[in-house]
Structure formats: C-alpha cells, structure tokens
C-alpha cells in the first residue's frame, strides 16, 4: 500500500492469526486529527498489525472506535495514548489532585475529563484534559487499558535515548509536529530543560517557535541538534525551512529493539512514535 499524508493506512502480516488475540498487545493513539492502533505479537515481540485513520472531530473518533470490531476483543494487554492535548507539568511536591480544575485553568478554558499521571524519569506529574466520551468508550471496550498522555511517552523516551548516548554537555531539542501544534522538548543529559506546546497555522510558525526556543535557552543553531517527529519528513516544507536555519536537523528514530513485520516496515515510524513506544 502507498503511504500518503492524507490517506488511511491498513497493513498487517501475511501470517497473522486474529482468531486468538490474547497473544497480542493492543496499542491505541488518539489525537484530534488521527486515530491509530496496532498489535504487538507478545511471543515474537514484533508489531504485526497497523491501522490509521484521519479524523475531523471527536464524534468521528468515537465512530471509528465503535466500528472497529477488533478493538473489542480480548488481548494480552492494552494501552492508549492521547496526543496533542493541552497539558502542563507540575512538580509532585506542589501538586494536589483536589486542585486539578484550578490548575488546568492556567492552560485552557477548554476541558472535559481532567487526568494526571507521573512521569517516571522526572519528579513531576503531567496534567491534561481529554474528551470524556472518548475516555469512557475506550475504558468500556478495554476495561483494563492503561492510558497515557503522549508527552509523558516523549519525555520518558527521549531521556532514555540521551542517557544511552555519550553526549557532551549541550542541549538537544526534540520537535513533534502535528497539524495544529508543535511540541518542543529540550533535554540536557538526564535533565528535562524545557517543555511546551505551541499552536501553529503555518510552517513559518514552526520555524519561529523553534528558533525562539533556541534563542531563549542560549542554544546555537550551528551546534545544537534538532530531532523531528510527527507529521514531517525530509521532503516537507517544514523540514526544509528548518534546515535553512539549523545546521543539525534530523528525522528522529525509534528504539532499535522494536521489531516490525515486513509489511509494516514502510510505515514512517517517527510519525507514530507515541503509538509504538507505549510498552518501552
């Protein structure tokens, strides 16, 4: 199948056995513009099934969940990440769940069900809001599902990536690009230096916010690396524009220990990082 930016995608291993789904882990990722899920063969530790749909609104997402019958089967385990949502990081010492509503007002006046979870690599919780109807149907079809904010996955995995490398004492920026936002994460060795999500309307907005963060954190576009994830590639204007101003721009990679069947190798895995990294 041809992989296109505006196309739904459905790929699976030729020898997949869906009669006994208890041998698979189900991963789901939900954002305002995309609904994706995949299956990991827990015996072979290999991804063998992948579906991705473009979505326009929450009702469209709920309809997709309802019509995908495979999601209602029994699995070895299941997890779900929520992407591109308003969120904030709060030090654990300052966070009280009784004050979640007031804290969230500092981010946005839009909100439904407020959730929070601990970020394992740092002493902080991430507070975010999701559509209550989406959360309800996800837990109805998979009662024991583990839910994550995608920023938690990004921060934890990027910290692990940097820890595993012999880096000098310089900041490294990670940019996650979506249709509506650019999420910027800056890490220095084992420390999270910066995290924020900016609304965008154009490729120049992406450039502006990334260069603004470079400037504010005294980062040198000729020295400090930028790794890009999400809806971008080397052929897109967003990448080419950044490359004019930042010397070391790279498309990000996923953990090498993740394995995929041949049919799934054509997927741009940096675009679905949160989906494929939920079990790491």
Query: Based on DSSP secondary structure assignment, what is the total number of beta strands?
Result: 15
| Low-pLDDT stretches | none
Please estimate the helix content.
10-25%
How much of the sequence lies in strands comes to 25-35%
Q: Please state the average pLDDT score.
A: 91
- Rg from Cα: 19 Å
Distance between the termini: 28 Å
Helix segment count?
Answer: 7
SSE order, one letter for each helix or strand: EEEEHEEHEEHEHEEEHEHEEH
Shape: globular
SSE layout:
Elements (H helix, E strand, L loop, with lengths): L8 E4 L11 E7 L3 E8 L4 E9 L3 H10 L9 E6 L4 E5 L8 H5 L8 E7 L4 E7 L1 H10 L4 E4 H14 L8 E6 L3 E8 L2 E9 L3 H14 L9 E5 L6 H9 L3 E3 L7 E2 L12 H4 L4
In short:
The chain is α/β, with parallel strands linked by helices. The protein is built from seven helices and 15 strands.
Explained architecture:
The longest helix is centred in the middle third of the chain and has 14 residues, at about 150-165. Helix content is about 25%, strand content about 30%. It is α/β, with parallel strands linked by helices and about 280 residues long. It has helices at about 60-65, 100-105, 130-140, 150-165, 205-215, 235-245, 275; strands spanning about 10, 25-30, 35-40, 45-55, 75-80, 85-90, 115-120, 125-130, 145-150, 170-175, 180-190, 190-200, 225-230, 250, 260.
